[in-house]
Amino acid sequence: MKNVSNEREKPVLVNQLVTIDDLRLYTEEMMAEIRLLFERQAGTVQKKWLKSYEVRRMLNISPGTLQTYRANGMIPFTRLGGSIYYDQEAINRLMAEQKAGKRS
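RESULT FIELD:
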């Protein structure tokens, strides 16, 4: 018997067969991994309030542009002490409006 090998995989025999049971086991393992990913995603809670750096990252804008958006009233914000917070839902709406505007 001749072995065929790939650098990433274990050696495989040329005449090795994959059975239906092998496929079932593989499917069960993949489904378990997918379920785990969904459970992790479902466990993450979106924040209600975002800081400036988070908004800048979401919108891919500079600090100056964010300040202009605040000054023009494009993005509602709340100042608490020395920090500025933005409502996640308002940012999502702005992003949706911008996306819809680009389509028209």
